[in-house]
Amino acid sequence: MKYVDEFRDVDITKKLINKIYKKFEGRDINKRVNIMEVCGTHTMSIYKNGIDKLLPKNINLLSGPGCPVCVTDTSYVDSAIDLSKNKNIIICTFSDMLRVLGSKSSLSNEKLNGSNIVSIYSPLDCIYIANKNKEKEVIFLGVGFETTIPIIGLTIKKAYESNINNFSLLSSLKTMPNAMKKLILDPKAYIDGFICPGHVGSVIGTDDFDKLARENNMPMVMAGFEHVDIVYAIYSLCEMIENKEYKCKNQYKRAVRDNGNKLAKNVINEVFEITNSNWRGLGNIKDTGLKIKEKYKQFDAIYKFKLNIEESNHINGCLCGEVLRGVKKPTQCKLFKSKCTPLNPIGPCMVSQEGTCANFYRYVLED
Ligand code: SF4
């Protein structure tokens, strides 16, 4: 299949790996090069394909805050649980949020206890559910990055045009570029280059990342998700680090335009406006969240139910915050594989299949 098979070609990946060894093994391009990816699909592809183990020892891969479930603050989960206890409310969510622990419980526990919580595939399903349950309030848990935001915006537009008044969004929607800036400025999260999130790029393009790279002297590559894409991105980043080339190179042109997808961006801009957002492990970051604009305010669950969602503390012993900043590896967490497993996840990084801890559990053999 064109645009897929050539990026899964093992021989091309082998050649690229050999080039990386020839050019960069043991080289003092920066003693140790730390390359971070900020997309859960990249995380899965790296560990599933064993790319981390194929590289020279001086090239270190870090997984950043690229999984939307993993960066969702505990207080948001607590608010969703509180709402779910109201018999007149139906909570709709993507299934990966179900097992994320709040401070005391999870949505999946509350569902077992009788709360009306429905797992859905598309936010548009909420419109159908709201129409079928006119006596109840339907709340969608909006957890996601730029990739899922356009379809959530479309759902709100559809609800507005159809005069649906028993639907609302509890937004934990997040945008990536300013979160990356926070990591660049974090003295403990030492990062030499970024593999930029291809899905996010397909919506917003490379322009914002390029600006971020140039303003902060940080090499970046926009990459696809096959092993050829990722290894080529690592090779390019090593070259850019060595040459002090600070920009965002677009190596995912088959899906990403420099200025992104105009239609998707228009929907986002029509329905949402920028606000601050609470990120697990990174705290409250300016201009990294989205809230519903005045015109569509009736669909904002925070406004409708008069909620106040404060930034909250971590779960005891869980190092998700440090893992998400690339400061610690999951294997440095005392709970990893002992108390925290995919069947019994303590933190969100073990819940989602895009989570770093879940991927380490599945694919990484300890040294
Ligand atoms: Fe949190 Fe579990 Fe990962 Fe430890 S192993 S950081 S407890 S998710």
Identify the notable features of this structure and list them briefly.
binds iron/sulfur cluster; alpha/beta; 38% helix; single chain; Rossmann fold; five-stranded parallel β-sheet; four-stranded parallel β-sheet; globular; 367 residues
Sequence-ordered SSE layout with sheet pairings:
Blueprint: H1 10-24, E1 33-37, H2 40-48, H3 51-54, E2 59-63, H4 74-84, E3 89-93, H5 107-112, E4 117-119, H6 125-132, E5 137-144, H7 149-161, E6 167-173, H8 177-185, E7 193-196, H9 198-204, H10 207-215, E8 220-222, H11 227-243, E9 248-250, H12 262-271, E10 272-279, E11 283-292, H13 301-304, H14 320-324, H15 348-351, H16 356-363
Parallel strand pairs: 1-2, 1-7, 3-4, 3-5, 5-6, 7-8, 8-9
Antiparallel strand pairs: 10-11
The protein binds iron/sulfur cluster.
GO molecular function: 4 iron, 4 sulfur cluster binding; carbon monoxide binding; iron ion binding
Keywords: Iron, Metal-binding
Protein name: Hydrogenase formation protein HypD
